[in-house]
Amino acid sequence: WQAGQNKHLEAYEMGATTGDMEFAATNLFQYAGTAMYGCGENLERLSESIQSYAKRAFQCNQRNCWISSVILHQLSLDLMGIEQNAFSHYPNGMTEDSCFRHCLSNNVISICRFICLKKKYVAFLTGDLDAAANMFNLSKNYPLGSTGRLVGNMISVLIDGLIGFFYARKQRDDEAMWTQVGVDAIQTLRKWVKSSEWNFSNKLYLLEAEFYFLREDDERARASYHASIKAAKEHRFVHEEGLA
């Protein structure tokens, strides 16, 4: 993922130069989403950049890219613990929740799904697992379409697996259901790792560690946790190194 980031910036310049602002704005959004979810870049610097990208999309009347970029800006603010409405920079009085309701009423499913992912990601990383599970369940109403290849949606599979194994360890009546969520995520990551060991190996090791931990196989769990940390460090996924 890191290797392709400059290509998005080059594509933005090409689109802006030729007047194709939809192409330009889309590539800025792709860059921002990959940087946020996939690459673990410095949040403070990235937040400033994403805010700038969102303003460009707004000025060029690229509504979907603008909304998506503002949601990414809100994500960066939330992860830094800054209580600020990212939509406040625009003259529409919108909030993330009102944006969700508007998109839901207009059947803009991709934005509804994107907001669910954002909220689930924040909730998980800040330790609010109940909220993360609620977003997991809500997101079932907005299945993936052609945007399934976006980095954020791939990371969503990792988060779903981690949520699943967390609740499976609670040994409640729904243990089997949550275990299956985790196992399904492992199966998906095993497919993806064949196409890119660099991007997915640390994530697969982490989910496997959680599975072994659930099965009380401490030796294999410990080995997989260490393998996840090692792969994340070597592949420069510093945020996922910390998670493991």
Report on this structure.
The chain is an all-alpha fold and 244 residues long. It contains twelve helices and no strands. It has helices spanning 5-18, 21-39, 43-59, 63-79, 96-105, 109-125, 129-139, 151-168, 175-195, 197-214, 218-234, 238-243. The longest helix is centred in the last third of the chain and has 21 residues, at 175-195. It starts with a helix and ends with a helix. The mean pLDDT is 93.
Q: Please mark out the parts with pLDDT under 50 across 5 or more consecutive residues, or reply none.
A: none
**Over all CA atoms, what is the radius of gyration?**
18 Å
Overall pLDDT level? 93
* Topology, number of strands: 0
Summing up helix and strand content along with how strands pair, one would put the structural category as: mainly alpha
Cα-to-Cα separation, first versus last residue: 19 Å
Secondary-structure element string: HHHHHHHHHHHH
Number of helices: 12
Strand content: under 5%
Which descriptors apply to this entry?
244 residues, mainly alpha, 12 helices, 0% strand
Describe the secondary structure blueprint for this structure:
Blueprint: H1 5-18, H2 21-39, H3 43-59, H4 63-79, H5 96-105, H6 109-125, H7 129-139, H8 151-168, H9 175-195, H10 197-214, H11 218-234, H12 238-243
Q: How would you concisely characterize the structure shown here?
A:
This protein is mainly alpha-helical.
